[in-house]
Amino acid sequence: MTTHVAPQAKAWIQARESDAVYHKVIGYCPSTHGFTLVENDIIEMVKVPIGAIVTDVMLLTGALGASVTADVGDGTTEDLYISAANVAAASVTRMESTGLAGVPKQYTVADTIDVKLEAANPDEEIAFALIVGYITGVDITP
User: Fold this and answer.
1) Number of structural domains, the chain?
2) Spatial separation of the C-alpha atoms in residues 74 and 48, rounded to whole Å
3) Is 28 part of a structural domain of the chain?
4) Domain-located, residue 26
């Protein structure tokens, strides 16, 4: 086993100063949303600005119906943060800790974090929410 040291971790090199700010944003889709939801619909839930680095995503749903699953991603990768979460029953699903290719991702253009409802037609009368934590004001490039 080898221990590797990032440049900022060396005692003689000061870490980059940062004006980083942590944001926690809730996107809410009430049961009275007025959408006609069907399989594979995408709902844009939370806007993230240029430079944002998403650090946490949590999907909270009521029972959206038998066989309904949900992905959470962005305009580029629909299942970047959560893939095929079972939302047939009321549930809370947190951003996955494995299989997150491309994370952390620093957004170079403004985008939205989206929920895609798949595998069956969802119940239209059920509320759901998406909580997204992201950092701005920091650069993750080496």
Assistant:
1) 1
2) 10
3) no
4) no
- The distance between the two most distant Cα atoms of the chain, rounded to a whole number of Å, is 59
Do residues 139 and 90 lie in contact, with contact meaning Cβ atoms separated by under 8 Å? no
CA distance 13 to 55: 26
SS3 102: coil
The reply to whether 98 falls in a domain is: yes
Joined tokens for residue 97: 């800790």
Summarize pLDDT for 76-133 with one digit per residue, the tens: 999 999 999 999 999 999 987 655 655 678 899 999 999 999 988 888 888 899 999 9
Task: Write down the pTM of the prediction.
Answer: 0.82
Show contacts of 27-32: CB within 8 Å, 24+ apart.
Answer: 27/113, 27/129, 27/130, 27/131, 27/132, 28/127, 28/128, 28/129, 28/130, 29/115, 29/127, 29/128, 29/129, 30/127, 31/62, 31/125, 31/126, 31/127
Query: Domain containing 123: what range?
Result: 35-136
pLDDT digits (tens, 9 = 90+) for 125-137: 888 999 999 999 8
Asked whether residue 12 is domain-assigned, the answer is: no
